[in-house]
Amino acid sequence: MPGEELTHFAVEYARSRGASYAEARHEYQIGEQMILKNGVLDALGFSEDSGIGVRVLANGGLAFASTNRLNKGDVRDAVDSAMKKAKGAARKDPISFVKEETVVAEWSVPEKVKIADVPTDRKIRDLVELDKAVHDLKLKMPARIFVMSHNRIKKLFVNSEGSEIKSYSPRIRLYYYLTVAGEGDAEQSYRNYGWSGGWEALDELRITDKVIEEAKSLQLTLEKGKKSPEGKMDLVVGPQVSGIASHESCGHPTEADRILGREASQAGKSFITPDMIGKKVGSASVNVVDDPTLANAIAYYAYDDEGVKSRRRYLYKEGRINEFLQNRETAAKLGTRSNGAARATNYDREAIVRMANTFVEPKDWEVEEMLEEVKSGVYMKSFMEWNIDDKRWNGKYVGREAYLIENGEVKHPVRKTVLEVTTPAFWSAVDAVGKDLEFEAGFCGKSDPTQALDAAFGGPTMRLRNIALR
Amino acid sequence: MEDNANRIVKKALSLGCEEAIADVYETNSFQIRFSQNQIDITNSWREQAASLFIVYEKRVVMTDIRDLSKSDEAVGKVVRIAKVSQKNPEYGGIAKGPFKYPPLAVDKRITSLSEGSDFVYSAVNAALAEGAKETAGSFLKNDQTHYLATSNGVEAKDRRADLYLSIRAMAGPESSGHGVECATHFTKFRPEKAGEKAGQIAAMAKDPKRGEAGKFDVIFEPLFLGSMADQMAIRNSAFAVMAGLSPFGKKIGKKVASNVVTIYDDATADGRGRKRFDAEGVPARRTAIVQNGILKTHLHNTSTAKIFKTKTTANAGLVGPDPHQVVLKPGDWKKEELFEECKDGVYVTNTWYTRYQNYTTGDFSTIPRDGIFRVKKGEIVGTWKDVRLTDNLLHLWQNVKALSRETHEVEWWGEVAVPSFMPYALATKIGFTRSAE
Prior knowledge:
Number of strands of chain B: 18
Distance between the termini of chain A: 56 Å
Strand order of the largest sheet of chain B: 3-2-1-4-5-6
Number of domains of chain A: 2
Oligomer: heterodimer
Distance between the termini of chain B: 61 Å
Strand content of chain A: 35-45%
Helix content of chain B: 10-25%
Largest sheet of chain A: 7 strands, mixed
Shape of chain A: globular
Strand content of chain B: 35-45%
Radius of gyration of chain A: 23 Å
Helix content of chain A: 10-25%
Largest interface: A-B, 91 and 82 residues
Order of helices and strands of chain B: HEEEHHHEEEHEEHHEEEHEHEEEEHEE
Radius of gyration of chain B: 23 Å
């Protein structure tokens, strides 16, 4: 790997300058991005990027510096800059990292069809064919945008405790916006899919089938959609909705750096405080986990960007707050261990606490069983508008594809069902959890400068009882 | 670096490209992040790279060249990729130079700055003096140099150097305020002002009660209004309009805001969004997007302008047109007069997480954060929490009744993504919703 020697040099040099801890991360990322707008390849982007980021602890201060000039002089300058700023931080309470195991390891994600072996024109053709399949539906579709990208990431992580981890992670992402128009009216959809692995992704994810289903559903909503009922009733939510709720109202509030206030000025704080482990926030049916070890999920990793082995984390267990997402800094502050949640988007960003693949753990209900027990309610399969406040208490999900349920039967589509609800009210209303686990991908935004990071969120269909809808 | 830009363009042309743009840039910036009134980390960046845009037989390809010593090799690679790409029949070319530009204006006291912790503690202490107990935020020294060369005769240099501080102050678990400070001149940088602002709002926002749903008159703090104005600019990118990600399609010449609203994209204004030229080298200018409530233009590069049968507005980014700096023309009201005019309303100071149900209609919601104040008969009578502004982008701007003469430069993490100059505003009948009981 180019830069390997410099990565070791950065750590050794930082130690020689008095760092109590030092780590260096060399990353090489190569990828392409295709933007297909209304059937026309608007632009093709090619990227090849490499550099080294160095993080040091000195005199209780923490500093990070990066450079893409891979020579000894510039790496030395980066270390000198970080050391000077760490020493100048003048903190009253010094920053420390919790002790973790020294690791020497190498991991990689297998590709059934190597991305590097698929010619660019074949990738473009695959995307154009996807667009054509939608276009051939002959719907009135004034706008459609498909963005497909792939990125292959090679990393070398070295720290002053003797850890040395090499990795290779190929990732593919496809997201799109579709607009279907009616008479003076329109419906829009945004979906986002991701994969760790090779070019087999498009088949494995059944992308074409899913996009066609979505386009037909937009048309159906336009043609047959009626006003959504209002008031308290039962709500059955599809995997996309349970997935976004797991990310927004469980994953984010259990990030330890947010709980400790380090993100207060940007991504915000949390309704959870450090003493709330064990506190009830949902029904006993609710387990929400974050798991970087899921094969082929877009946020798969074996070791995090601090060299800590990844593992499944039960964030909410049986409706109670169970565990926070931790890196070495937050774990030291909270007197616990890191659970391998430190990640960065590239060599030029510090690794902070992040979610990976967050989802509601499936149980044993069939979707039909959940529906047939609903006398009156709404089946919200997907959403379009969503947001949540910065303490992660008040969330909102507005239905994209939704149907009326009457006496256990799914009836006509309903439009813009609004679920505006607090986090505990949402999770406490869950009385049945399905087995149909599905994932979608997202760009999780956090940190300053913003690090839009690969994340997956998912879940099965869930039933919520007696919840207010508009 | 200047030579690099020219060499990259010449190399691309020698390999058969009909057009090429190279933007060689150097970054020498640092940032201090802080929370709990202490410095968490300092981030430093030293980068040198080039953005390259090429057109090969109407095939458009973009890349970043990170290792300038291997630029010939990188150009060769990207041209090979272009050869197997697909033609873009909509592509309409880049601007023809050369152009003349205003003189470079960079404050050397900013470019030579290597420390920032005093600024941080100045802001923190100002917030604490106002009654805050806890603060968090970031300070940024930004220094970027750009050398642009194009196959259409442009050779230009820009250096963009500025200072920025963002601070959130907390006076209690649910009482917070936010302040920002931006400067392109060292002597005008007053981080303590941002601290004071954040601290004052936090101290005012004590004992918040759950807010009400309904329609209210609203006084917007410039930081909040910057988010709404950003949406007016971003959604007017010709790319967004063509992609169905805008409510402004087919609305040129139509009323999209009230008469008092004039919104410019203005890269000539002396702020953090100042630029000498756009990504094609077209000199920066002031473009009225909305004038007295009428939509005058979308934002264009040369290529999108041809599609819309108009001229570039000097908003080229390498992918599509982007706003540089949003300026809302101030009104003639005093801030106090806006409050006096607000008989039954809400004063909102910051927001985040603006999301649309449908971009083509402009139906959206956004979540006010930090101080949210109930106003009756011009007086603040209480503090709210847990509400959501749920409305329509065009309806919101059509209901702006008055703007202050006082304006502030604002920019904030993700939400006010484009540097902006904003007054205070009073709007009527704006929708609020809240979580169900």
